[in-house]
Amino acid sequence: MSPVRVRSRTDLRRQRRRTAHGCWDHLVVAPLWPLHGVNLGTLLRTCDAVGACLAVPRLPWVPEALERGNTLRRPACVHWTGNRVRWLAAQREAGSAVVGVELAEEAVRLGDLPAARRRTVVVLGHEQTGIPPEALGLLDQVVEIPMVGTGASLNVAVAGSLVLYRLAGLL
């Protein structure tokens, strides 16, 4: 068996985009009911990895959480929402697919979720209560991440990252 060759930073740079992605390109992750700031930083890093944008609500603590979580130390693609439900409705009316990550009977398993073929907004709910009922009716599709352990769900950052990678066609 041949030895494993770890790719250098130069190798990796050659394989990746030469410039940052365009704003509102193809994928947007929207943790609209965040509970923990650390999750926003993790999602910001995933957005960079898959070429997505992050849409967050205007809550007093969110800017600081994003600043702390931006380990890339360069500007990230972040957009601010006003009324969260109205913002989701506007995204849907503009032609975006709206996919919620939620435990629901009609949910598609993550492994069966196809890559996004058009602009897609991934909606993430509150860590404890999920996506509020008034927003569930705005979802075009629901995706569920199967689990075999005793927990009911993953945290928002992990769940959002898995779904983003899948929709980006990278998983």
What's the topology here?
Elements: H1 9-15, E1 27-31, H2 37-50, E2 53-57, H3 62-69, E3 78-81, H4 84-93, E4 97-101, E5 108-109, E6 120-124, H5 133-136, E7 141-144, H6 156-167
Parallel strand pairs: 1-2, 1-6, 2-3, 4-6, 4-7, 5-7
Helix pairs in contact: 2-3, 2-6
Give a written overview of the molecule:
The structure is a single chain. The chain has 171 residues and is an alpha/beta fold. It has one domain: Alpha/beta knot. The protein has helices at 9-15, 37-50, 62-69, 84-93, 133-136, 156-167, and strands spanning 27-31, 53-57, 78-81, 97-101, 108-109, 120-124, 141-144. A 7-stranded parallel β-sheet has the order 3-2-1-6-4-7-5, sandwiched between helices. It starts with 8 loop residues before the first helix and ends with a helix.
